[in-house]
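Dear support,

Our group has been running a series of protein-ligand predictions, and this particular one with adenosine-5'-diphosphate is the one our PI (initials K.S.) wants archived with full inputs and outputs. We had some confusion internally about which version of the output was final, so please treat the block below as the authoritative record. The input we submitted was:
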Amino acid sequence: MSDSLIELRGISKFYGNIIALTGVSTTVNPGEVTCVLGDNGAGKSTFIKILAGVHQHDEGQLLLEGEEVTFSSPRAALAAGIATVYQDLAMVPLMSVWRNFFLGAEPTRGFGPFRQIDIEKAKQIAKEQLAEMGIDIRDTEQPVGTLSGGERQSVAIARASYFGARVLILDEPTSALGVKQSGVVLRRIVEARDRGLAVIFITHNPNHAYPVGDRFVILNRGHSMGNFAKEDISQAELTQMMAGGAELEALQHELATH
Ligand code: ADP
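Confirmed final output from the archive:
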């Protein structure tokens, strides 16, 4: 039995001889942020793909509300309420904010051949949903490309939440952003969590993960270095584990002696 919304038990994924992921266990719950940390090649994308239904795990168990599942396609993961916001955000820069918010799922009015997009309603919903996340967009006709990186992430998060996501996977949402914009996105993560979403925050930055995270999975070359509740790990320890501990100490020693 599992009391968690999602539980991973010893999940592994192999590409031929390559171990992309092995022995990864963690839990994901509503109103919590599970952070997945790791450097390049650590297995973060593979972790996302298994939960998003792009790839299937080879070993271990994936439980959704206590039932063992495998998501056979992205559609199956989405139907289970798992939405992924990829780094490219799947947005059309030249299109307006409200168009990007709906992207083909716009509200309509009229029937049969007279059916058309209800533009006013669409704009109103987009504006309200964004405002609820603390984002004040003056004009939703504004092209998405004119928004800041943090605001674009915010639109993508608000969109996933509006379309019924229970679990929100964020793929390195702060990696291309400066300090201030990263702060904006971290606040969105907290807001999504406070609205009861289960958030999975993928990042290589322990300074971004620690303040917002409830649980931390650290990956290193496909191996899990541990799965920690916040009370069991300090920010310094997390940073140390991410930096490869001994390597960082050796570097500090080397720098100090020159
Ligand atoms: P990250 O997202 O943390 O950078 P990945 O999940 O992309 O890490 O990759 C983990 C490991 O699996 C790497 O060694 C990578 O080269 C390998 N890998 C990822 N995808 C494939 C694939 N489709 N075929 C073969 N090897 C892959």
